Amino acid sequence: MGIVCSLNRAVAPPVRVRGRGLALHDMHEETVDGHKGIAARSQATIADGEALMGKLAQDAARANEIAEKLRRGEDAPGKISRPMTGKEFLSAIGWTAADLRHAKVVQELHRLGATEEAIQAAIDDKHQRATYRKVLRRHQRDHG
Fold first, then answer.
1. 3-state DSSP call for residue 144?
2. pTM of the entire structure?
3. pLDDT of 5 higher than 60
4. What is the DSSP letter of 119?
5. How many CB atoms are closer than 10 A to CB 22?
């Protein structure tokens, strides 16, 4: 008993496959589906890249305008700000005080010559505690 199938009815007519032919068909179908997924992700990445390129082109044009004004001796809008402190930088990238303390513990473990397993255990312990906290917060939220 055969199975009627087609990879793309607009391109290929229905084909009857049996036994190993069916397994080969399924394997190629999975491969084609995988390539379609890769193509979709690539298109999304290209779209994001093109949008960023447009923004960067605008930023570059603005910077060139400011540079030209400064070369002509004109006032240019802009502000020179102070550099970020370490604490401000870590906050900007989403680190908390607990993250900083943990990083210092891992740094000290490295300095003391701890094995990779010991360091990984410290990292895993942090993730485990974070998971516990998340579960407790969700429980408190859901059950008052």
1. coil
2. 0.35
3. no
4. H
5. 14
Q: What is the pLDDT of residue 6?
A: 45
Helices (H), 9-115: 19-71, 86-92, 97-111
Task: Kindly report the backbone phi and psi dihedral angles of residue 59, in degrees, each rounded to the nearest multiple of 5, phi listed first.
Answer: -60, -40
**Residue 114, Cβ density class (10 Å: 0-12 exposed, 13-18 middle, ≥19 buried):** middle
- Give me the phi and psi of 17, to 5 degrees please: -125, 150
pLDDT of residue 15: 57
Write the single-letter amino acid at 12: A
- Residue 101 near residue 87 (C-beta atoms within 8 A): no
What is the rounded CA–CA span in Å between residue 95 and residue 88?
10
Give the SS3 label for residue 3: strand
Neighbours of 135 (CB within 10 A): 10
